[in-house]
Amino acid sequence: MSHAPDPDDPLAGVDLLRSVAPGSDPALDALVAEARATGDAFAAAALLRGAGFAPERAAAALSQAELRATGTAKLGERAAGMLLTRAGLEQATRWQVAELHGRVLAAAGIEQVTDVGCGLGADTWALTRHVPAVTALEADTETAAAAAHNLAGTGAVVEHREVDASWQPPAAPEAARCALWFDPARRTGVADARGRARRVSGPTGLRPSLELVTTLAGRVGLTGCKVGPGWRHGDVPAGAHAQWVSHDGDLVEAVLWMGRALASPGGAPDPLRPVAGAHSATRLDHDGTVLAHTDSTALPPSPAGMPGHRVLTSEDELGTHLWEPDPALAQAGLVGVVAGGAAEARAAELGTGVGWMTADLPGDPAWVRTHRVVEVMAPRPKVLSAWARRREVGELVLRKHGSSLDPAVVRQRIRTRGDQRRVLLLTRIGDRQVAVEIEAPAEP
Q: Is the pTM of this model over 0.85?
């Protein structure tokens, strides 16, 4: 007779998880597919219970089916055969980005890597495709069981254990050929408005801690530590390389690369060879192809503390176009690479730290989307309302970059009674707040 697992016994939770693994019970799999086809959660649960499945197993099976359907966008077709947890799926790396991690390790000649805190094994799976020997460690009991299922047949060794400063990584013939990969937990356990755990954006609250990561990094040739995309430059450990990555237009992560295997400065920027002490931006296409990459060694020379590219001080200097940078380029602080290399277009950043640039010509599509400047105005209510009447605004798209204004407040003060779609950018030129009407680029 089925019974609810004892919440104080973690093995009961593992047993329940394993009992709903894809392929473990074909009859259950078939019923879950039939139940989900109803589109009614209550009817689906009733169908499984009516077939004799205990309520907790029926609920777990339906939950897994929902997670796998959601996870396909991030994990690809493999999600259909995986065991997932909601928290693990939220933190899991997109499969196209995980491939980049494995390729970086392979380019450094790594022969053995340990994924510390492997979660569901999304990164681990990619690492097994590029590194001969892979070990995956996970401290959480249920997540470790899910990882063991997900990595079956890959050759990865999965262990349920926690790591501290006394731990020694598995050794390859040479320590320089060993690597560590970390994806520290970055969620607080406090839910946001959508029911998701809030993310940690800096070093405080990472598990394992950044201090432990840097300590262990000294024992191997190369260490990669995935952190949030909003990671601050000032929090990058000395001598490390920070790589910001965008995928399919989304800024998805930063990776802190550390160790003796980092490349020395010199040569063209390479997404697979992070340079010690530098920072970089990598743009990936939908399928994971590297569309563009640059790093701080390519920045124009400049006096200490000063940008090496032109920055506007007045709206009179505004060009005919605006360049919207790829988010990885902007977050990495590398818009100067693009602006500094486009002197013929008179490219300049709108204001220090804004990221968006202006020019008299369209920009390099590898790094920017080009918008045409239609009109520039002060973001005062009367000015914006007059603009909306004159431009017959019906649908107003408000965007904000480098502005202190609240788009929600601005929207409330603009009456839209026309039938035209207009795009208004709230931004800063020099130190002055402005609103710029732009023509949105055509969709590719």
A: yes
Which residues, 6+ apart, have CB-to-CB distance to 216 below 8 Å? 116, 163, 165, 167, 169, 180, 223
C-alpha distances (whole Å) from 79 to each of 64, 74, 138, 154 are: 10, 8, 19, 15
SS3 285: coil
Amino acid at 162: E
Q: How far apart are CA 141 and CA 370, in angstroms?
A: 49
pLDDT, tens digit, 9 for 90 and up, residues 266-275: 889 999 999 9
CA–CA separation, 258 and 237 (whole Å): 8
Rounded alpha-carbon distances, angstroms, from residue 198 to 190, 253, 407: 6, 16, 23
Work out whether the CA dihedral 227, 233, 238, 243 comes out positive or negative: positive
- What tokens appear for 240 in the block? 């490390």
> Is 208 within 8 Å of 137 (Cβ atoms)?
no
Question: Strand ranges (DSSP E) for 3-70?
Answer: none
What letter would DSSP give residue 194? T
Q: What is the pLDDT of residue 2?
A: 40
- Residues (pLDDT < 70) of the chain are 1-12, 172, 187-201, 304-305, 441-444
Dihedral sign (CA 264, 182, 75, 232): negative
Residue 377 burial by Cβ neighbours in a 10 Å radius (0-12, 13-18, 19+): middle
